[in-house]
Amino acid sequence: MLRKMLLIAAAVAMPVGVIAVTAGTASAAKVTDTTGAPATASCTTSGGTLTFKVPIGIVTAGGYQAPVKNKGQQIKVAGVTLTCTSSAVSQGSFTGTLSGKIKSGNPTDTPAMEYSCTGLVGVSPAPGGFLTGALKIKWNAPAGTKFSEKKSGIAVTSISGGVNGSGQGTFTIPGNPGTGSISGGFPGSDAGASSTSTDATADTEGQLATACMTTGGISTIALGSGTATLQ
Question: Chain-wide mean pLDDT for the chain?
Fold first, then answer.
């Protein structure tokens, strides 16, 4: 009798065990999230650097001296971390790493004008100048998830520089609203035309100004935090 009861109990328990294993397998399976149009993402940014091929500064006696020739500028963007959410990603927040290069110049500027720190404020390029760039974001999907688009490309044609309420410098892309462009993941419904991002510098405007007047000027600017909307 006891043996019969044990056999019945084992038979009843077996489906439960099978269900548990099946459920575990299902939860571990990769879920594909589409990041194509009209997917959007809202992000915070942190860290990263802007590195100038030609150091910039403010010309002063005994301090910064501009190069002899104006050959334009190249800026390397590296190490910016994005932490984002999106209605197209149901598994929670995810991260990305942004990097890229920007080229700018204005043939009508003197070297002192071209490589001046004052050029960080206002909209670039100014009349007669040019600015082109390409930034890329490499996405890290949440655990158990894969993205149909693993990268986003951002075309840069203008930048707006300013100062925030905490006295830090800011950089907004695009500098001319409504002219953004995104390819790959999270392009929004208008290919990123209405997208925008603003990063603040780690140092204040005053600290940057002091560094601009040193002999070597500024070759690298550390970034702090900011926001980005891919839409």
Answer: 88
